[in-house]
Structures are given as C-alpha cells and as structure tokens.
Amino acid sequence: MVILKSFLNNIPFPLWIEELNNTVLFFNQAYSDMFNVNFNVINILKGYHIFPKNVAKIYNSNRIHCIETLSKSIFEATINDQILQFHIFPLLGEKDEIIAIGSILLDLTSQRKYDVELESQKNILRTIIDSLPHNIFYKDKSNKFIGYNKNFKNFYNKLGVTDIIGKSDLDIFPDKDTAMNFIKQDEEVISSKIAKYSEYYSIDENGNPCFEESVKVPVIDDSGNVWGVVGISNNITKRKILEDKLRYLSYTDSLTKLYNRSYFEEKIKELNDEKYLPLGVIMGDVNGLKLVNDTFGHLEGDKLLKSIAYVLKNVCGDKGFVFRWGGDEFIMLIPNCNENLCENTVSRIRFECENYNYDFIKLSIALGETVKYFLDQDVYECIKDVEEKVYRQKLLDGKSVRSALMDSLRKTLEAKHTETEEHTERVVKYAYVIGKALNFKIAQLDELYLVAKLHDIGKIGIKEDILLKSDTLTTDELKIMRTHCEKGYRILQASGELENVATCVLCHHERWDGTGYPIGLSKSEIPLMARIIAVADSYDAMTCERPYKKALTKKEAIEELQKCSGSQFDPDIIKAFLNYLKNNDD
C-alpha cells in the first residue's frame, strides 16, 4: 500500500478518489499542491468543495452521469486562468459494481496556448498562401490531393472540377497525357527527394491554351522520409510572350526584320552539324545605297534595304536563313545546299532584283557564293572567300552598275516631270553648238554632253508638289528647289567617275557677277561647261511656255541674253551662242 501511495504521489497531475457520497478517500501530492489542501482533511473533504460553484455544478453533473452509466466522463473548465480537463471514471468492485469514483485532472493551459498560437500561425500562412496569385497544392505519396489554396480551387472550379481532395491528376485533368506527365514528375520528386522545375503548355481557367511553370518540392520529415509533394504552378504566358519578343528583338534587325549578326553567331553553331552539310554561304552587297541616301535621304535608303531584304527572304524561303551582316551587306546560309543549288539561288536573286518594282532605281546587289562541305571547315573562312568574290564583282561591274543606276535615276526624273526629257534634249543641243563654237575637242564635247544630260538630275530629290507646281514658287519653295544643284552634285559624286561633271552640275546656276547659287562663284571661278549650261538652260527656259509665264519670242530671248551678258552670263559664251542663233532658225 505504501508503494502504491508513493507511486500515485509521484504522478505529476492531480488525481483523487471519492466515495459515492462525494467524500474524498484519497488525493495525491499534485492535487494537494494545486488546490492547497492538506492531507488531514481526507474523509472530511467533499470532492466538489475545492471548485468554484460553476465548475462544481458541472463536476457533479458529470459525476452523476458516471455513476448512472458506469462510463467515463470528460469535460473542460477554467479555474484561476488554468484550462483544466477533468476525467471522471467509475471504480468497480469484484462483481463489477461501482464502489467509488476516480478523477484525474490534466492542465491543458500550455497546450491550449500552443494550439491557439499554432492555429494563428496556420491562419497567417493560409492567408498568405491564399493571397498568392499562384496555384498551390499538396499531394500525398499516392498522388492524391490533400490540400490547396484558394486560387487552385477557383481555377479548377471554373473548369467544372469540384471536390478535389482525395483525387489524382487523372481525375481532374481532361488531357490524360498531361495528367500522366504530372504524375511522372511527382514520382521523380519523391524518388529523388529533389525539387523539380518545369515549363509546359496547358490551359487556363477559361479553357484557353497557355504556358505555365511549376515547382514541385518533396515534403521530408525529420527521419528523411518523403510523405508527399508541395507544388506551385503559375501562368507565365505573358512572360513567355515578352521573352519571345525580347529574343526576337535581340536576334532581329529592326529595319529589315531579318536575323541580325548576333543570331548569326548562335545559328552557325547549330548548323555546324553533319545533317546540315553541305552548307551554302552567300553574301550580298547592295549597289547604290549611298546614291539613294544622298539623293532621296536615308528614309528612302532604308526602303531600298527593306526591298532587298524582301527579295532575299523570298528567294531563300524556309530552306535558308538570311542575316543582315552590316550596313548594306547580307549573308545567307542554306543547309543541304550543293554548288548548283547555291548558283541557282544567286541567279534567282539577280532575276528577282531585276524585276522588282522599286520607285527610283532598279534593285542591284553584288553577290558571291561558296559551299562548306566539311565540319572542320571554318565558316568564317568561307565568308572571307565570298567577300572577295563580292568585292571583285563590284570592281568588274562597278562602272556598268553605276551607269545603270544613273540612267535609272534620269528616267525616273523624266517620268516624274514630263517636260524634263524635252528640256534636257534642247539643252544638250544648245550646249553642243556652243562647245563647237568654242572649238571643244571630242572628249570635251562628250563630257559637255553628260553635263547637259544630267544638269537637272538633282531634281529627282525634290518633292513633286514643288517640282510640278504650276504657280510661282514661294520663297521657301524656291530655296528647296535651288538645292537640286547640290543634290545632283552628290548623286554624281557617288558614281566615283564623274567628278568634273558633278562640279559643273553643282555650278550651273552660278552667275558671272558672283550673285548666283549655291556657292556664289564668279567669272572664271565657274567651270566653263557650267557657264555654257547656264546660257543653254536659261535660253530654253525663256523660249518655252510654262504654266506661270508665257514663252518669249526668239528675238525677245536674244535681247534678254544680250542684256544679261557680263552680269549673269559669260560674254564670250553669249557671243558664240548669239552668232549661232542669228544664223539658224532655232
């Protein structure tokens, strides 16, 4: 009995035994300490005396229930800010009759505080998880959903899926291949105990195709056992679109929309593979870009580059890759391309350029091609090879190409201004007779012919609303019109072989007295051929009717030439020209 009493006194929570009439037969040390009761009150103390009235009432009720039903009764009550749990149970005799009541008191205060704190933390965590714009879910090892956040629930509710708990991906995903892929990912995470990131095509909450990313993390206990998977998925369609756009911008030439040199560096690594050999390498260098830039401005030069890019892309199609290599240079890489196919591609490019409907000049591009047959061939050596071919072609064809470009510009001007062709032919005629009168040699006459033929070439760079205006030009419009001298000079300078002609075209509106434009030269400072063109051009202008003025008679024009001799015109040239006019019917 002493041993049992000692054992009960060492139990760290209060317990007591009372008779059926409430008299306490025994209580342990923990009971004495909690309620400050001495052991000498045993057999005097009633079980409910030590409890507050409200607790005593509940206690008695549960005690009676225990006696009547011979079953255990449990309830909780608060005494002095302590949360206590009462366990009341019957003590039975040898014949299973009730002989006494036993009670145990557990202090749950700390546990309840912990439970409240834990619940508070869980609520905070749940609020955070529910507020995230991601789908978050928890699965057990058998791929069954055991939890999820509000976003996940709403997502699948919109797709008509409810009651997700206890279901697997196969139960909620309409696409079984996608579901099996998710299950496979889960199994990999569980078996490897390593988180897994993935991106994949899926559907959004409205059933539309989208791009998603997910991270799945194994849930591992302190013993290293995996009991499930936590996953986070997110719709990244906008991000992928932005990434694709940025990738496009970083690898695309903004003007021509072709691939740029940066993408070439990436693509050439990929194409250095047996399955792409032989690899055709073609380089092109646009002819006439500087001429167009100088004549019509860089916006028109950009149009020329875009037109060339269109032709190259159209010819290469889906079988090859076209890159803008530099300012006016392009490179084409064509997989599985032998020499014949490479040469045919070059021929097609030339044909398409010849027949392309560009506003001002015929498209022209110098081309060189080669083929890379072996993996150990350096593609940059191939490029060096085709560069030499391109530059060689530009040297061989340069003169004819520039001549064709110039002729194309002249014809374009004549098409814009119908009077230009007739005016030019008359100026050529008058200039020729003056040159003959001044004893020009054949070479000089040939050059004078070019100056006369091209003296107004700069007008191609003047807007049509000014060039074709029927009324007198305003001061500002006149300033613009006068720039045709400089524009013509730049055009002819671009040819590289017409420097003297270019200078004469620049100066054909200078005056003998130095009051002309664009430089203000006088007398012998003005090139002789420019002085001749000034006379021939002015005479034709005076004797031809214009919308804003009547034509002068031949006699009136001669009088005007005589009056301007020594001020606007070179007297010697006027003398030679008047001698011709007086003896001919022009």
Describe the structure.
The protein has helices spanning 2-9, 29-35, 53-69, 109-131, 150-158, 169-172, 176-192, 237-251, 261-271, 289-296, 298-316, 339-354, 379-416, 418-437, 442-454, 464-467, 475-482, 484-495, 499-507, 528-543, 554-564, 571-582; strands spanning 15-18, 24-27, 73-79, 82-92, 98-107, 135-140, 145-148, 196-203, 209-220, 226-235, 279-286, 321-324, 329-334, 365-372. The chain is an alpha+beta fold. Strands 2-1-5-4-3 form a 5-stranded antiparallel sheet, sandwiched between helices. Strands 7-6-10-9-8 form a 5-stranded antiparallel sheet, with helices on both faces. It has a 4-stranded antiparallel sheet with strand order 12-13-11-14, with helices on both faces. The radius of gyration is 51 Å and the shape is rod-shaped. The chain starts with a helix and ends with a helix. InterPro entries: Cyclic_di-GMP/3'3'-cGAMP_PDE, GGDEF_dom, HD/PDEase_dom, HD_GYP_dom, Nucleotide_cyclase, PAS, PAS-assoc_C, PAS-like_dom_sf. Residues 398-586 form the HD-GYP domain. This is PAS domain S-box-containing protein/diguanylate cyclase (GGDEF) domain-containing protein.
Shape: rod-shaped
What's the number of domains? Answer: 4
Q: What fraction strand?
A: 15-25%
- CATH C-level name of the largest domain: Mainly Alpha
Cα-atom radius of gyration: 51 Å
Question: Class by helix and strand content?
Answer: alpha+beta
Give me the side-by-side strand order of the main sheet.
Answer: 2-1-5-4-3
Total beta strands:
14
Mean pLDDT: 88
Reported CATH architecture of the largest domain: Orthogonal Bundle
Number of helices: 22
Residues in helix, %: 40-55%
